């Protein structure tokens, strides 16, 4: 087995996962804020931020979809060794990992049901960069307005229109992480 | 058995991941009750098993934890939970609201305004606001799905018809972000306006296996009628120890002759004010005299 498959996990899982979760919680509760994480490294092309999220949130109970570009032998082996999440198609996945365009079409994912809107996918979208400029964000978790460089606007607006259904999205770029829950209202500037 | 025999913050990692996923979905759908696989905790139901599990999933070693029970830091429930996390998570603890990064509460929101970077964890007995109106889970779930909350307004109307006012004084129902009607846990309705906060608010119900959340700066409206608007009421007295006229008060019987005093329910708030030199009717020597 290759070294990059066995390495790249948390050195001290309980404490590092706890810190990583707090970052994920802050990001999801305050859309548009950008945070930095460290401590995990899945094989390329998975970013540090996405690796940390996978280790913190995924396990044997969470079907995971690897989008084209992220679906390869090395990443599959890393997921199998460190996480044990069953790999699944977009229609069954609780988490989906990939580049923004590779994750499409977005209507293939679970958006929950009126009875159980929580039974929806959480996307982990890999972006080349993440900065606090671009689309204007308002809604729960945001005092007045936040700004975030989103890959596009329309998909997030269509998702907001589904509320209380819809998917939720983590954005990862290198070791930087932000999140957009389904409640956030996105406007182009 | 020693403390090191336990995983950090007591729960195993698999359980914490499951709770963390539920918390994130709760934050993404404000006011919606996310089902979760609540675990047996080393304390009985009703002692905050839901809140403890949420706190365990949130704590990091760098946190400073405050635990209150109806505003007080020094009651059995608060002391036990604080000790539990001191032993299993080795976190720092405090009684000062401003110093805490995570606050677990039973039935109060601290008087001092919460800030960004703080998390308030509520212990919730019955998370379903419609439960006493409709006992079937299948029906209440459908009512939430269809946004069918007429029954709740009928209940508030009947309050007015019977009592001349909305007599619900605690666990006063709220509507979160214009969508889900939510039980804010049995906090006095005096605290309802502070549900709109800069802090992250998480709610855990252990026996009922539900987690829900209010993200910061989220609209939280107490249900009411145009001609009977919501009113955040409290006992019409100042605190007898610190003299504060705006805090929520507990009534304490002090003798067998009907003597009573009113004191701040938030012990840290009251102690801080007294340390600043504020004095109420029965503070210090006056109180000793009264009791003698």
General description of the model:
The complex is a heterodimer of chains A (189) and B (292). The relative contact order of chain A is 0.19. Helix content of chain A is 28%, strand content 19%. In chain A, strand 7 (168-173) and strand 8 form a beta hairpin. In chain A, the strands form 2 sheets. A 6-stranded mixed β-sheet of chain A has the order 1-8-7-4-3-2. Chain A has a 3-stranded antiparallel β-sheet with strand order 6-5-9. Chain A has helices at 3-6, 13-29, 48-57, 73-82, 100-103, 154-161, and strands at residues 35-36, 64-66, 95-99, 122-126, 135-138, 146-148, 168-173, 176-180, 185-187. Chain A is built from 6 helices and 9 strands. Chain A is of the alpha/beta class and 189 residues long. Chain A has one domain (3-187): 3-Layer(aba) Sandwich (Rossmann fold). Chain B is an alpha/beta fold and 292 residues long. Chain B has 2 domains: 3-222, Rossmann fold (3-Layer(aba) Sandwich), CATH 3.40.50.11310; 249-291, no CATH class. In chain B, the strands form 3 sheets. Chain B has a 7-stranded mixed β-sheet. Chain B has a 3-stranded antiparallel β-sheet with strand order 7-6-10, with no helix packed on it. In chain B, a hairpin with a 4-residue loop joins strand 8 and strand 9. In chain B, helix 1 (13-28) packs across helix 2 (49-58). Chain A binds chain B through residues 13-15, 17-19, 21-22, 24-26, 28-30, 56-59, 61-62, 94, 113-118, 120, 122, 140-143, 163-164, 168, 181-183, and chain B through 7-9, 13-14, 16-18, 20-30, 32, 34-35, 57-62, 116, 119, 141-142, 145-146, 177, 179-180, 198, 200, 213, 215-219.
